[in-house]
Fold these 2 entries.
Entry 1:
Amino acid sequence: MAAAADSPLYLGLDFSTQQLKAVAIDAGLAVVQRNSVQFDSELPDFRTQGGVHIHPDGLTVTSPVLMWVKALDLLLDKLKGAGLDFSRIRAVSGSGQQHGSVFWRTGASQTLDQLDPELRLHQLLQDSFSVQDSPVWMDSSSGRQCQDLQAAVGGALRLAEITGSRAYERFTGNQIAKLRASRADEFQDTERISLVSSFAATLFLGSYAAIDYSDGSGMNLLDIKSRNWSDLCLEATAPHLNRLLGAPQPSTSVLGPVSSYFVHRYGFSESCMVVAFTGDNPASLAGMRLQQGDVAVSLGTSDTVFVWIQEPRPALEGHIFCNPVDLQAYMALLCFKNGSLTRKRIRDECAGRSWDVFSAALRDTALGNGGNIGFYFDTIEITPPAVGVHRFDCHNNKVSSWSPQVEVRAVVEGQFLSRRLHAERLGYSIIPGTRVLATGGASSNKEILQVLSDVFNAPVYTLDLADSACLGCAYRALHGVLAESGLSFSDVVKNAPEPQLVATPHPTAQQVYEGMLKRFAQLEEMVLQKTCT
Ligand code: 5FX
């Protein structure tokens, strides 16, 4: 049934690397509007490529902060032009690419407090940033600061135990430490540091928005157990950082009403609430409606695995973040660089460039591949940090080649055994009711998903969500206003479209892959010792 023309709406935004997206839903979770602004093509003055500037050193990667502000002006105009009645929006939430940082110049809070609705945000805020080019997640120029931080807290594992991750160059604390050292004057002139997510919430709120626990976990600064800044990490990063960051808050917090700027310029209701913004990965977890026991596997150029975790075991690989929809829980995020491109290379070499032939090879070979196990790291892998192609027979002897059909099964089984092994190392365990949610390009291949189902010994579902982060934020906006009446996030989204069941595990899957997983772990250790860089 269509919602009434004046029924409430909930707005979700996503400030991602290449674009700004919006989705508006009604209280029945139906999408009523979608819109977006592409940074490169619609804001060409900023001369970005893929939304970023890669600096001559090849390591520093930034985005112009005013481009994000201007994109919001443009997006709101587009939504208005498309007929969105802003007065119906009860709550807005959003997400941003994780780890990126925004440096507000001294005095910016006063500017935010008195925004003139006659002017556009980018005109009003052009002098409000002490650093114009914001470091983003693609930056890898803070290696030195990573080493310093790990040394200061007692090593990489200790840092992972406190913050959920060992030091990573893109993590915000290390970016802040680098900026403080390399651009002391700008740093001195900074009154507040936001993440991309809390910066975007600040625009709506008209005052500094808190960093939420979930996105805050991507900074190497937050103690993920106490959910407060770690004094040890703050002190090792920069002086007075506590004051510059403000207190972190739960990701489900209602931060306050939208500023009068949005009421007067766009006709938002004075009672429209801003719900804490968060990182794009936590927001995707919300958009996919992941539950305890579930694992989401995104099969793209690189494969990403998200899991809902109750008892985290931070390690030297992957990341543990506070969970964005359940205060007691956590989520783990793992990135695997060798995903689709590697599967495609094997398709080209062993299946005559045909996905149909590739699929037939998976159908025609037995679960467990006769004990053969392969590792395919065409480029240096993130998880684990190894490189090269390594094949082992059922006696763990190295072999140099296999038949094309065995090779096809080996690449897919090897990748999924790795996804399961590394998720389990961070505290994931398969429980009754576990679902594997598959997204991304390869999620349309049934035979690949059958192997996924067998290796995880769990049913696989697909989700057709091009904008899971954005939709997740529209759900989070709705949850924010309903949470006060005691409703959990899963209560609020229980009527969202169900994912589609596409594969169930073969009856022998558990028996085959339990043993194989143990062998896989031992062989991976061997590969790592041989190829460690
Ligand atoms: C996660 O740790 C990442 O760095 C990326 O997935 C960014 O969040 C992309 F926006």
Entry 2:
Amino acid sequence: MAKVMIIGAGGVGGVVAHKCAQLPEVFTEIVLASRTESKCKAIAEQLSRPVTTAQVDADNVAETVALLQREKPDLVINVALPYQDLAIMDACLEAGVDYLDTANYEPPEEAKFEYKWQWAYQDKFANAGRMALLGSGFDPGVTNVYTAYLKKHYLDEIHYLDIIDCNAGDHGQPFATNFNPEINIREVTANGRFWQDGDWRETGPLEENRSFDFPAGIGPKQIYLMYHEELESITKHLPEIKRARFWMTFSDNYLKHLEVLGNIGMTSIEPVQFEGKEVVPLQFLKALLPDPASLGPLTKGKTCIGCIARGVKDGVEKTFYIYNICDHEECYAEVKSQAISYTTGVPAMIGAKMMLEKKWAASGVWNMEQLDPDPFMEDLNKYGLPWQVVEIDQPTGMED
Ligand code: NDP
């Protein structure tokens, strides 16, 4: 018997609303709130049961507190943008509500993906007896849980970790991003960074790349080293890790467009003056690009996101690969979204379910790898993101 408030009605918010609506025994009541209420209403019309919709500007703490006090949810699922994280955490503390998100806080004026701002809320949440679960999407999210699961069941120590995110789907558009273009391009154009021997090493944006042969008929694809936020929390909580890297596939076409846009300054987050107005080029670009939600019916193919972990078990070196395969068209048939939103929205629902069922119950601020992976992994299999774990005894190209 629990009431949940979802904040954000974009691609991910739509999937979370569908998945929560499919489980009335857990999510008894649902409120869907966002800056533009018409988007909440459009999602509500697709659902199998009634939900309440509301308008809220989540940058405004007082407005969010007033909505929380009126609706009295047990938990907020924040799937607005990373810029809203701290304001929504403040509102949850003031109204006495638990909190969950899928992406770490980012200051709007700086493309920095760091947990320090949210970890600084540890004492506030602990003292208030409230729980905040950070990064309950796929990556971060499932990738953190995969790592914890391999550590719990397959390896005594993990020494080398590679998280590999492949989107082998095709939307047929000349250039589009699969989730919020502003967030996506900020992430991709940032320097690469990975953890090695107790320190961060930097590369230029997408400088380091190699080929990786994906399972399920996807085959070999070029993967690019990027910084991704789960590296920070995983290496903090599993200090035995000697090297941790994150890789993502990009098509040549995507990279060609991105290079040109970057060269002409369109991916910059520095404001420029245009006809007496201040314009942020990347925000203007976002206005021109297809809405990621519009790609749902167009996208075909699969995603494959997983972790390769090498370490020791009973003194013997072993390597395991754990991954999920998700099909864009199947996701669209189920929840009217492509697999990128689906693979984020399903873990957000499961994280919320863990908290409401008290399988994950602890006050303070938590990353996913700190909690027992088993009930979450069980639910991934039940609710649309089945996984496989295989032992690897041949070189994969990820050894060096
Ligand atoms: P969208 O841009 O599609 O949706 C964002 C939603 O948030 C929109 O409905 C938007 O409203 C709303 N919003 C923005 N600002 C505010 C505000 N001030 N107050 C209230 N609502 C607001 O993004 P996605 O759905 O693709 O992504 C949602 C989140 O998921 C992001 O934080 C993203 O980083 C994260 N993500 C995480 C992944 C993971 O695996 N962990 C992968 C993919 C995404 P409006 O319509 O008015 O603009």
